[in-house]
Amino acid sequence: MLRRPRIASLLAVALVGVLASGSVAAPAAAPQVPDPYYPLDGNVGYDVLHYDIRDHYRFRNRHLSGVTRIRMVPSEELTTFNLDLLLDVSAVKVDGVAAEFAKPRRHELTVTPATPLASGVPVHVLVRYQGFPGRVRYLGERNWLADRREVVTMNEPHMAPWWFPSNDHPSDKARFDIRITTVKGRQAISNGVLVGRSGNGRTTTTHWRMADPMTTYLAFFAAGDFAVERGRAHGFTYYNAVSKGFSDFGTRRGLAALRQSARITAWLEDELGDYPFANTGGLVTSLPVNFALENQTRPIYAGAPAIWLLVHELAHQWFGDSVSVARWRDIWLNEGFATYMEKRYVEAHGGRSTSRWLHRFYRSEPSGSAFWDLDISDPCDSTAPCAIHDLFDLRVYDRGGMTVAALRNRIGDADFRRLLRRWVSVHQNGNAQVEQFEQMAETVSGEQLDEFFDAWLRSGERPPSTAAYGL
Fold first, then answer.
1. When you count CB atoms within 10 A of the terminal residue's CB, does the N or C end of the chain come out lower?
2. Among 70, 102, 77, 76, residue whose Cα is nearest residue 89
3. b/e for 378-416, b at 16 or more Cβ within 10 A?
4. CA distance 392 to 194
5. pTM of the model
6. pLDDT tens for each residue of 148-197
7. String of DSSP letters for 93-161
8. b/e map of 304-331 (b: 16 or more CB within 10 Å)?
C-alpha cells in the first residue's frame, strides 16, 4: 500500500494452510492471533483452506447479498467458533446442518454447530448474509468505496468483513473462488484468473479464481464499466482494467500506464526470483481514493500510475502478498522493501544509486529529528487499536527503505542478493516476522547484525555515520 502524503498530488495529476500445488511450504512463523494491534481481528481454533464467495451487488441502492462457503480445519475440538463479518446474517450451516449463530458485536459472528467439530477433520461452513456495506463503520473506518456506477473493495488492514465472512488476519491464508453477480452490462474483476462469465438475461455472474494462498485483506472485487486489455507480454499473462468513469483520454492514459506492469514484473523477477503467481496486471478506478493497494496479482490505482508507483505495488507481490506479515507490527517488511525496490529500479535504469539516495536522505534528517523517533518494527507500540496513520506512518516507508539500502551496503551486493532471493523463496505463500528476517540476514552474511538492526529500526536515534551501519 501507498498512503504517502505525496501520493495524492501525483494521482491527481494522473486523473487521479494447504498450499497450491507446486508451491513452497513456508515454516511456521508463530503468528499472534488475536493480533495486539487489532484484538477483534482473526480467530483461533481453525485454519481456513478455501473461500467460495458468491456475492450479488446492486448499484442502484448499493446493497450486497451473498453466500460464502468456507472450508476449514479445526486445530482443536470446537463447540463454537467465530468469523469476522460486518453484515447481517440470515443462515449458517456446518456440513449441511443448520447451526445456531449470534452477533454479540457488530464485527463478530459466533457459530454454534449442532455437534462439536473434531480436531483435524475438515468441515464446510455456509454463511448467508446481506446489508448495505457503505453504512457500516468499524474501528472508525468506513471502507466501502462506491457510487451508482462503480464499486471497488480495497483497503488495508481491513476490508474483507464488509463483503464476506472470514478469519480476517494475514496469518490465515487461503485459496479463493470469487463469483460476483451484477446487472447485465457491468463487468466484475477480481484476483487471479478469470474462470468464466454466465448470464440469465438480467444479470451476469463473473467467476475469478486465486489458486495461490492469499490473505483476506488482499481479496477484492471491482464492478462497473471498464476498458480491459488482456494478453501475454514479457513472459507473463496480464489482465488490465481501467474505469470508463474517466474521459476517453484518461482511460487511454490508464491503460498505457498499466501496459508497463508485465515489463516491471519481469524486471522484479530478475531481481528477486520467480514471480509467485500465475498472472499480473492492474486496475485503475475513477472512484475518489488517495492511495494505491497491492491486491494480489492485480494492484489497484487511483488514476494512471507513475512508474515508481507500479514498481512499489508490484514489488509487494513478493513482499506482502506471497510473503505476508505474521503480525501487523511487522508491516515494515512490506513497505520498506517495496520502497527500496522503487529506488533500486531507478538505479538499475541509469539513475541515482540506492546508496546515494540513502546518504542524501540521511543528511536531510539531523539528530534530534522526529524522523528517527519511531520504532518502525512496532510503529503502534503494541497498542490497540492501531490507528491507520500510525501503522502506515511515512517513516515506516522511508526508514524501512533506508534500512534495506543500508543493509546492502553493510553486507555487500552478493550476500544481499542471496538474502532477498532466499527470503522470498523460503517464506513463499507463508508469513514471516521481523525477527526472522534479521536472523536470516545474519545467517546469509555470516555477520552479527543486532546493533545494525537496533539502530535502524528501534533505537529512536539517528544511526552513526559509519560503515558498520551501512553509511
1. C
2. 102
3. bbbeeeebbebeebbbebbbbbbbbbbbbbbbbbeeebb
4. 32
5. 0.93
6. 999 999 999 999 999 999 999 999 999 999 999 999 999 999 999 999 99
7. EETTEE-EEEEEETTEEEEE-SSPBPTT--EEEEEEEEE-GGG--BTTB---EE-SS-EE---SS--GG
8. bbbebbbbbbbbbbbbbbbbbbbbbbbb
